[in-house]
Structure formats: structure tokens, C-alpha cells
Amino acid sequence: MSFQFIPLPASQFSHLHGLSEDALKDQCVEIHVSDGGYPCRVSLEDVPSGNSVFLLNYEHQTAHTPYRSRHAIFVGCNAIEASTPENTIPEMVSSRLLSVRGFNASGIMMDAEVVEGADLKSEIERQFANSEIDYLHVHFARRGCYAARVERVGSL
What we know:
By secondary structure, the protein is mainly beta. The chain has two domains: 8-76, first zn-finger domain of poly(adp-ribose) polymerase-1 (2-Layer Sandwich); 84-153. The chain has helices at 21-26, 91-94, 120-128; strands spanning 2-6, 30-33, 38-39, 46-47, 52-61, 69-76, 97-103, 109-116, 135-140, 146-153.
């Protein structure tokens, strides 16, 4: 079964570029300097040390269900949107403890598991073996932040 990681679109954050610190603060956005461990949801890479990142609240689960959700994420200020090949797991997630949540097409959580990043591929395959699961959300387990969406590629 094939899968693909889906980055957040860079265009969703382009309006933040060039805003003053006060204007960013009005939108609950902060700028931080990466120490090398800030995971960007657009590039699906850790932002290199010394580069700036936006810290903002993002609604990653928009379905009108009890599982609707938003949380803090980092986006590199100079992020280039990732183009991830099928069946490839970004290093940004493979090196961390993760929570993997499987949702049906209506946005209802059908399954969830906590795994080490090294075990993520088998967990993706396990959850996608359930035909009711339409997509996955991967979160960083320790802080609970949304990392990425994973979609099926091809038919069941």
C-alpha cells in the first residue's frame, strides 16, 4: 500500500512575511531562532540552526466533528514546500516519538497509536489496512504538536 506525506502549503503563511513584530503578535504569531530542532510543517525538515521560524496556532483538523483541532506549529520563515516521494518518511518525523491518528472521510478518529519514528512505516501500513481509515495525522507525541498529514496513494 502506497502513502504520501502532505506538507502544509507555503501559500497559507505568505501573508506573515514582512509583518512587524506587533502585527505578528496581533495574530498570535511569534518569531524564534532555530537551534536546529524546530520542525517545519511546510518543508517537512528541521529548520537549520540560526534560521528564523514562525510559531503560530494552526487548525490542522478542520472537520466539523468533536475531533476538530488546532495547536502550535513551526513554519520556517524561508520554507520551501516539500515534495515528498511516495512511501518516503521525512527525517523530521522518523527521528521522534510520534502519535499516529487515523481518521475516516468524515473526520472521525478510528484508530491511534504511539510509535517511535523508526516504526512509523509499519504503523502507517497497519492503519491503512483498515479500509475505513481515509487519512492519518502524525503528531509529535511529547508536545502534541501536529507534524503532517499522510494520505493513501492509489486505490485499496
